[in-house]
Amino acid sequence: MTTTTFEGTVRSRVGIRPRAVAVGVVALIGTAAVSVLTLGTGEFPIAPADVVKTLFGQGTAAQDFIVNELRLPRLITAILVGMALAAGGAVFQSLVRNPLGSPDVLGITNGASTAALAVVILGGSSTQLSLAAVAGGLAAALLIWLIGGRHGLHGYRFILVGIGMAAILTGISGYLLTRGIQMENARALLWLTGSLDGRDWQQAGPLLGVLAVTLPILLLACGPGLRILEMGDDSAAALGVPVGVLRTGALFTAALLVSCAAAAAGPVAFVALIAPHLTKRLTRAPGPNLVPALALGALLLVGADWLAQHGPKPLPVGVVTGIVGGAYLVWLLTTERRAGRI
User: Fold this and answer.
1) Quick check: 38 and 314 in contact, CB under 8 A?
2) Could you tell me if 84 and 258 are in contact, meaning their C-beta atoms sit under 8 angstroms apart?
3) What are the boundaries of each domain within the chain?
4) Taking Cα atoms as reference points, which of 127, 120, 126, 116 lies closest to residue 183?
């Protein structure tokens, strides 16, 4: 066996793809660079070199307080939310075999938003809001699964059911907003936009715990099966993949990730759509490409947060992702239509 053949055999068995590794590494480097810039951004600007020194415990007392106590929790929350959204979006797109299979489109995010909005209007606490967002996202996933995917998540049928569910939940959210008072509505609208303002370890800690539990499940238990499942249900079943169990487990695990991300930062739009689709275009590899998607999701959200803080007036991060993501969605629909897939 030649060296080239041996390397190809090893890569096929362990799933190592040099292009995917390169995409992940570049995204991680980009995330680190933008993170340093973000930590130095604010009313008290800090030079990148001083930010790095402060992170290693060599800054002044003021720099240590600003970087490690005020800005670092927000940054970590942004990274974790980006990773959770990217992983959830990658799984959904792989399940329905369609780049439009995003939790933003399928109504999962709307379920989290509607439940959280109800808590806000009723004057609930931040903890109750977070729990309601998680419960609402999982409930929406359950309803969509029962209506459109119980016997198989078939592409456009599942997407259409999700779009219908999202429309219903949007209407309910609009009604709830009409029932709230001005202060409650202002709080609700800020949350619905998606924002990292005021985020601290209270949001980052639980999300980190959820990621620590769910990512090994997706990477080790679901990832290889999802790659095979993209070839079709019959082919996957013939190769010994438990199609029904895999679909259900991956669906609700991804829904949990997206719901927890919404609980931490609100329904940040389009990251779950852009990150996995862009990752697949860059890696040119089958399957959900979870590892590079995680890195790219973190980069997208940290970069969006940095841009949001550099406008004439600081903006919620959801405004930036909504503008960029909306343009990306229009481009995606155009390319899919030209390719004859819609």
Assistant:
1) no
2) yes
3) 73-308+316-335
4) 120
Q: How far apart are CA 226 and CA 247, in angstroms?
A: 8
The model's pTM:
0.90
Q: Please give the Cα distance from 80 to 208 (Å, whole number).
A: 7
Per-residue pLDDT averaged across 311-322, rounded? 88
Contact criterion met (CB below 8 Å) for 319 and 50:
no
* CB 309 within 8 Å of CB 38: yes
Is the Cβ–Cβ distance between 143 and 251 less than 8 Å?
no
DSSP string, 269-307: -SHHHHHHHHHHHHH--SS--HHHHHHHHHHHHHHHHHH
Taking the C-alpha atoms of residue 163 and residue 103, their distance in angstroms, rounded to an integer, is 10
How confident is residue 187, by pLDDT bands cut at 50, 70 and 90? Answer: confident
What architecture is domain 73-308+316-335? Orthogonal Bundle (1.10)
Q: Is the pLDDT of residue 321 over 50?
A: yes
pLDDT at 243: 81
Alpha-carbon distances of 342 from 154, 209, 233, 280, rounded to whole Å: 15, 39, 21, 19
